[in-house]
Every structure is written in C-alpha cells, then in structure tokens.
Request: fold
Amino acid sequence: DAMVIQNPRYQVTQFGKPVTLSCSQTLNHNVMYWYQQKSSQAPKLLFHYYDKDFNNEADTPDNFQSRRPNTSFCFLDIRSPGLGDAAMYLCATSGPGLAGGGELFFGEGSRLTVL
Amino acid sequence: AQKVTQAQTEISVVEKEDVTLDCVYETRDTTYYLFWYKQPPSGELVFLIRRNSFDEQNEISGRYSWNFQKSTSSFNFTITASQVVDSAVYFCALGSSGTYKYIFGTGTRLKVLA
Reply:
C-alpha cells in the first residue's frame, strides 16, 4: 500500500490561478519535504517541515507556500503560477533520527501544467 | 559547496549486459551520506541504498552492487545482467549529517532493450 500519497497526480491550471497540491503519509514521520523536479533536472528542495517547524530554502520563490496542519498532511500552495512553475512536485518523508542520513520515502508526484 | 554530478545523461544497453552508473560528489563535511534512488516511469523515487562516509565497504544486493571510493569522491552503481525492468532514471544523492537537505544529481536515464 502506498505510504506517501499525493493528490492530484495531474493538475492543469491557468497562468496566475492559484493551485494547491496535497500530500498525506501513513508512516507517522516527523519530516516532510516538497521537491520541484523539472524535466531532466535534479529534484530541487523547496522546503521541509520537522514536525511543525517550517524550513524554507533561501532560493524558494515567495510564490510557493506550504502548510502542515498535522503530522499526516502537508500542502503546497502556488499563489500565482507562472509558466516556469510547470514541473513535477514531489512530496517525501523521513523519520526523526539520523538527520541527513535518513531514507526518503516519496510519493508518485503531482505533475503541474500551466497554460 | 555541496554538489552531486552524474555525467551520464542517458545509457542504453541490451538486456543481460552489465552497466555502471557513475556518481561523483563534492562536500567539505566529514560525516555525510550517499544514496541511490530509482525513478521508474510511474514517477515515485524508490530508495535503493545508503552509505555513510565512514563505511567504504562495497555492497552487493542481488544484481546490484555499489562501489564507494572516498579517494575519488565517487559512489558508482553497477547492475549486472540488466533486465528491461531496470529501465528507469537513477539518482545519486548526498545528505549532510545534522541537516535535512539532500542534494540530488541530475539523474541517469537507463534504457534496457530486449
């Protein structure tokens, strides 16, 4: 059974129209991550949560926000999507121990298309 | 600065051939972790292996083997007797002790032809 579930798998939005992507996990992991992956590029970390403690990467645009209402759920909000935000968005989790050394558990990703 | 380089963008092999995927990393940390993940067409990255910086022993798991050499900052991945199901994008990643930031390489797309 899938342990990290992302919805929707495919999202089409119009330029400037806000979009929310969701991620849920059944692993009870403390740490949740959002990565952006563009075609033929490395996954790029946008931010991560350790429990409710939010950690934003310095180069993550302000257009990207995140919420984590509880351990199981995490949301990625893109306030005004531009054409350059079209990408696969990957959610991942890891356990509390061994920071930097923990295995990441990924969802199947949400592919965002911006028209 | 931390960096992971996977110079091979795409590799094609015929089934049953052996194939090695290269990974070179840069870090100033003394304690760090190296990973390989597989991304099949479905999109979900799947963990394959983790190595910490103090353990340079090579590892073999079935048809998969990994060669970690600190002297050359490399963590290469070999698939023996490749199969069509091995077709995927493979990512090498680097984690630093004490942080939750993992750096990924750009991936190598492996195509195994029947």
In short: The radius of gyration of chain B is 14 Å. Residues 4 and 25 of chain B are 4 Å apart (CA to CA).
